[in-house]
Specification:
It contains three helices and ten strands; from the N terminus they run E-E-H-H-E-H-E-E-E-E-E-E-E. The protein is an alpha+beta fold. The protein has two domains: 38 residues, no CATH class; 117 residues, Elongation Factor Tu (Ef-tu), domain 3. The protein has a six-stranded antiparallel beta barrel with strand order 3-6-5-4-9-10.
């Protein structure tokens, strides 16, 4: 049996033109399916700015720095200098750390001079689904980690929650 016969059919059953039409239709159907499930990247540009809050955690902060976090201070991100909101609440608790005991075993203990600081930040940005954008360029999400600063202190923190 020949691959192509005299009439241009594959194995004498289907023409090459029919195969090409079926392939074009299959590609179009796949394109339609992908288009309907893809994220709308430009959708955040059409959304109005809204106010939302998020919570930062600064782990193992020295006790001398705890008082430097003031309600009402503006918060900036070090990488670009962009404004990331205003501190509306400051909470702290003694930090827990792992220490080596005299018997060689590591145990979780409460630190005497370090604290975990929790900052609640209020900012404006766009919300599209579960995507939060600050300044229309910076996406923020839980577990986002970065260096931030206020007019009094610079620190490393991560986002605990948004909403």
């Amino acid at each position: 049996m020949k691959f192509l016969d005299n009439n241009g059919r594959l194995f004498g059953k289907i023409s090459i033109i029919d195969v090409l039409i079926i392939l074009v239709l299959a590609v179009m159907l796949i394109g339609l399916a992908i288009r309907d499930t893809a994220l709308e990247v430009t959708a955040t540009n059409n959304n109005p700015d809204v106010t939302f809050t998020y919570k930062l955690k600064i782990s193992n902060c020295f006790d001398l720095l705890v008082d430097d976090f003031q309600v009402g201070d503006d918060l900036y991100i070090e990488s670009s200098g962009n404004h990331y909101g205003k501190i509306i609440d400051v909470e702290y608790e003694p930090a827990t750390v792992w220490n080596a005991m005299s018997d060689g075993v590591y145990r979780e203990t409460t630190s005497l001079d370090r604290y975990d600081v929790y900052l609640t930040i209020e900012t404006t940005g766009t919300v599209s689904g579960d995507r939060y954008m600050i300044n229309r360029v910076d996406e923020i999400e839980p577990n986002y980690q970065a260096y931030f600063y206020t007019k009094y202190v610079s620190f490393f923190a991560y986002v605990m929650e948004i909403g």
